[in-house]
Design a protein that fits this description.
homotetramer; 222 residues; Arc Repressor Mutant, subunit A; 2 domains; 59% helix; elongated; DNA-binding
DNA sequence: CATGAATGAGGCTTCATTCAT
DNA sequence: AATGAATGAAGCCTCATTCAT
């Protein structure tokens, strides 16, 4: 009589009976709201998303957003600040970083389904604090922690350039969807270039670039 | 009399000076509205900008926006599509491209004064068509025209990656403002890296990267 | 089963003390809700008080208000009509009435703790019926019953003026808190004036006032 | 210049043609909104009045309230603070004060049409500052300025009691409308009593009351 | 050419209230 | 007996937009 469970068992083998069972309906609603919010904020930005939109996606009344999160703003902060997307990077060995980033972006055209927290923030320019939080987060993660692991000079600049590289590629591929990058066919090529670029910035010799690279000089060691 | 923004009528030769000065106020107003709109849309996004804001910047009534442009949406399209920012690139010799991009970004923290068309679109993501227009524009400019000038294989991917690189850097520097890139001190270093990266993607040998770049191999062609 | 109609409140012999203390929590909750409601309605008015506020004060769920009283409106009527504040007056000998009123008001700055029923109604003026009920109550209590005990002409006018006097003083003292009346220092003086005024209206000679009181004549009959 | 008073051409002969003619429609709307607001705030309190109600009374859209006053709160302050009702009192000779007050209240059952600012504040308990402003106003007007004109001791208490008396009577008559006071028949009697009461408090001998009033005597000046 | 008045839709938020447990 | 989830209506306010001058 009371099995409200099999709502959208989207995948397969939805935990036959070992499910935490009684998942209070509230929890489901809360999670669903956050999902919908993450999607809409990421896709349409803070201002372009109405609370009613979010609630509508979940199929509940907009008032629940206030019951569970207090305000639209609070909900936004909830879904836009727990990025942690880059945290695992700290445990990735340096020579696997290229792969890691590559993998991160490779699965990207899911952007449409679930946009980057970074993109969410970029698209929500009315939230000034959000961009501040993002800066803090990235600074701590890359400019500080990750750069500390890089050998050679200018580690901080290199670390940030690396993120810039990844971020830009991600945008072009997932959001703007320029044809060459968005196309699945070029997946291999694209990954190789990405990896190469990342490696250049990570390897200690990269610093040499800055020495030899004078006007117009391209980067070949010759 | 009070010029709100440093309008910077950069095009020169506007109003050959013999014009009765105060006369073509209609045209002046129109232009001023577009300037203000470009700034606000870029800085605060479409949803974060009200027609009254724009009119207020210029010091006229909001109704004028409708007289001149028909609607907020029309005004937005007007100022967000005639970017042409990248057009000059077509005339830049290949071996100066790195410099050109470098210069483009280097002056970047003007972002605050006049934001990237790309950022404008990102920040106005509730306008679905805008992103489409941007894609068309970039595709035409880079994936087609610029890529055609590149030798070697995978020209299109390389062209787009190049833009991604520049775009990402620009965002990190101007919008997110991570410390290493935003700091003026690192200006030189940053430019050298940027140039190096661009050159790698432009030079025909770059394509080789895709061949050699297997696991962990860094990118030095040597 | 549960007729929430049986009031049976302020009398004695409620719960002969042998009750298992924590037991009749239902009844306790009911009473607590009414207390909280009386306070909040009086202090913040009907519109300024939310059902959740009341329930929150008692520490129970807002739904209980509906279980016990049916609606916010019903609860309001419940607590705003059984005032009975003036009932004891009927048993007060005429020559003690001044004292009685004086005492009633003197302890007044308790207004903050528990506001006048009159104030409750004034502050809930969106409830039209409430003011009607108050009028009925006052009419019955003063214009009819109390006036009947007054000798001399114009008893009804005098009775109502007496209440007006007390009511006004109470408001100035407790609610508006003008300095001279609200200050504890003037307590004695204030009480004497109040008593004097009340006596004048009660004493049968008061009626003469209407005869003598033409221009400028002051009121001392003595 | 042109008094924008003749709104509510309730009577007849609405200024045939000598009207200031082109009275900018805005001014009319503004004034009408203030009138409607004064009425509704006074009758139903701040919380019991919706902006739409007010606009509806005037027959315009609610947005105009914001155009002209900025917010509901601002509108409330506008209509609730310009009392000045008591200001003329300062120029009234002492021996006419009774008449003045009498006249003030006598025309009272217009309360329904246009309630006292004092009542407005009393009925809007959610506006804490409003009651503060009222206290300031009354303190200044009565406790300070008016009391200064009274001879004899305890001038401040007497001044405030006088206002209390008037206020209470006004409430009973206009708002609660108890039968004896509200009835037009008793108008004369009521006025005489009122005048008498006022005179008692004004006349210097009034202070003597406190000496003689030993009925139930506490605290006689001894 | 330009303005200010006016509107209606929609956004965020609160609240009384009901349903299911 | 009591709770928490959920709802729909309404409130304040902003905004794009039109109308009349």
């Amino acid at each position: 009589m009371n099995e409200p469970k099999n709502d959208r068992t989207c995948g397969a083998a939805a935990t036959p009976d070992c499910t935490p069972a009684r998942k209070r309906s509230a929890e489901r609603t809360r999670t669903a709201l956050m999902s919908a919010a993450a999607f809409r904020f990421g896709r349409y930005g803070y201002d372009g998303t109405s609370v009613r939109d979010i609630a509508g996606d979940v199929g509940v009344d907009a008032a629940l957003v206030y019951r569970y999160f207090g305000s639209k703003e609070a909900l936004f902060e909830r879904v836009s600040s727990n990025s942690k997307v880059f945290e695992p990077l700290l445990d990735v060995p340096l020579d696997c970083v290229a792969d890691w980033f590559s993998a991160l972006i490779a699965g990207e055209p899911k952007d449409v389904d679930f946009p980057h927290p970074v993109l969410t923030v970029l698209r929500s320019s009315s939230r000034d604090e959000a961009i501040g939080r993002l800066r803090e987060e990235m600074t701590d993660m890359f400019t500080r922690q990750f750069a500390a692991r890089l050998e050679g000079p200018h580690a901080e600049v290199r670390a940030e350039l690396l993120v810039a590289w990844v971020l830009g590629t991600s945008l072009m591929r997932g959001t703007i969807q320029t044809p060459a990058l968005a196309s699945a066919e070029n997946q291999d090529v694209f990954e190789q270039f990405l990896r190469a670029g990342v490696d250049v910035l990570i390897s200690p010799e990269a610093a040499d670039l800055s020495r030899e690279a004078d006007r117009g000089g391209s980067a070949e060691t010759a």
